[in-house]
Amino acid sequence: MPDQTGRRWLITGATNGLGLATAQAAAAAGATLILPARRTERAEELNQEWGGQHQVLRLDLASLDSVRRAAASITGDIDVLVNNAGVVTRRREETADGFEKMIGTNFLGPFAFTNLLLPQVRDRIVIVGSDAHQGARMHVNDLHFRTRKWSIIAGYGESKLADMLWGLGLSRRLRGTDVSVQLVHPGWVLSNLQSAVGNKTVERFITAVSTPFAQSARKSALCTLFAATADLPECSYVGPDGFRALNGWPSLINRSAAASDPQQAEAVWDFAERETSTAA
Questions:
Q1: Worst-scoring range by mean pLDDT, 94-103, 107-116, 184-193?
Q2: Which residues are tagged catalytic?
Q3: Of the four, 137, 177, 210, 274, which is 20 to 30 A from 79 by CA?
């Protein structure tokens, strides 16, 4: 981890799991942090634990009003913006804006937040995707599952494929600037995904089967930190080098053909611009 003294990081979802491990490492390396959170009391606890010099603000990515208020409260430059926060739901839910909750929280909220902060970003934007995108198909005409049958796998997978395509589209728009866009798959971290099924027996089975392949949030965060600080080709996809990218050390891994489709990226970008009324 290079010295980050004098640099400012914004990390969404920094109060637990992967985001917390990422924030801990960045703070330990000397970075000043911006900690947006729905539970600001937890973020403030971490701020005090890490020296008290960091900024805490309220952000709910499932609300565009909250996104706009949070972005407006941030002044000054941001060296590294890490879009880490995400959600998994047990059933189809909607955000305050009427979006399907996973596409709204995992993609549309971060898309709008990043666009609003883009003039302040100086170096790196990291989007935490997932290899869950590999089996997903993009349905731009119905990403909110208003006419299709909803499922956890389909909803989460499409939200992460949307993140991958957003990164591709953002990278193309920032070409020729000093800002780099990088994508991350953190590997398999035992977190909220296997606890979102709603069936304890199934959840215990998933946990038991996946535990031998899983890794700690601290080790998974190495992929995010690598994407945020290493000298990488533009719009690389960083993930673990182990079996099926479930665990291991940071490396460059393959994304799906769908995640590399520039036409699909433009379609997703147009959709997000319409839904959020924001543009890069």
A1: 184-193
A2: 156
A3: 274
